[in-house]
Specification:
The protein is mostly helical and 301 residues long. It is built from 14 helices and no strands.
């Protein structure tokens, strides 16, 4: 019989693994720098679908997934598919065009966007420190906007699209594997049409070299693996703890932008990130405090 300690350790490993894979994603995308961003997106969709199909067949999940993906749930997944496609294409373009710094900023902002969306649309209570954290982060965004430094639209597009994606997936009555599968199915026809058109026009990347083909096929695992690891981690550990792990990915991306890709860091970037990091630290502190308070209230006397 597995102990709770073992389960927590396993969940923590899965969570750290998922966010680490997302954190090093720019290294993979840089290997595809010569491939148009839309083609990279299309390959992510199609090869993810192949991998997901294998998983579904092995675990015999097709019937419950398609039973769940109807009516309101299907409409929500149509919206989430569009949002994740926007998020992916902006992220791929940003990495390929040396804007990893702005991309990392977007994912630092994202947790605070989530808090705001929960307050606005789900009736979730906004704790005082959370409100202060959001205000400080917003000040950081404002500093960057006023200065005109960096491609702020990238940061906001990534944060808002992923925040809204999370909101739709939260209210859609389907699990992580099912939701990702249906989203991928919805995007697959457009992805296939794009790649067929590129091939007929002689601009398709696939089929040029074995090395490039393998990298594009790998897009399926690169896309699906961290999402499935994250879903498994969410079932095995407190959400407050999992929420703190989400800063691993943008921290790694920030380090890669500065140390590996040589993107310039100006004074306004430092000021912006200082404010964002302060907001994130307050949010993390508040999450830990709320989690401990909840645990004390539910503990047997």
């Amino acid at each position: 019989m597995r102990t709770s300690s073992t389960a927590d350790t396993g969940g923590l490993a899965l969570g750290v693994g998922a966010y680490t894979l997302w954190g090093v994603l720019p290294l993979y995308i840089h290997l595809l720098k010569g491939v148009p961003a839309l083609q990279v997106l299309a390959h992510r969709v199609l090869w993810s679908l192949v991998l997901l199909a294998v998983i579904i067949v092995i675990f015999r999940r097709a019937r419950p997934i398609f039973a769940a993906a109807r009516g309101r749930t299907l409409l929500l997944l149509l919206g989430s598919a569009l949002l994740i496609a926007i998020n992916w294409i902006v992220y791929i373009w940003a990495v390929q065009n040396d804007h990893v710094l702005e991309a990392s900023l977007g994912y630092f902002i994202n947790p605070l966007i989530n808090v705001g969306l929960g307050f606005a649309f789900l009736g979730e209570r906004l704790r005082r420190i959370q409100g202060v954290a959001i205000a400080i982060a917003a000040a950081g965004v404002l500093v960057l906007a006023v200065s005109g430094g960096g491609a702020l639209w990238i940061s906001l597009a990534l944060a808002i699209s992923f925040g809204l994606y999370g909101l739709l997936r939260k209210v859609a009555a389907i699990d992580a594997l099912g939701g990702l599968t249906v989203e991928t199915l919805l995007l697959a026809p457009f992805s296939l049409a794009l790649l067929v058109h590129a091939s007929q026009a002689g601009t398709g990347a696939f089929g040029q070299t074995t090395h490039l083909d393998l990298l594009l096929i790998l897009a399926g695992a690169v896309t699906a693996a961290p999402l499935l690891m994250f879903a498994a981690a969410a079932r095995r550990m407190p959400l407050a703890t999992l929420g703190l792990l989400q800063y691993i990915a943008p921290s790694l991306q920030f380090a890669e932008a500065v140390l590996l890709f040589g993107e310039p860091v100006r004074t306004v970037h430092i000021a912006t990130f200082a404010l964002i990091w302060t907001g994130c630290a307050l949010y993390a502190f508040d999450s830990i405090r709320a989690s401990r308070a909840s645990a004390m209230q539910t503990a047997p006397e």
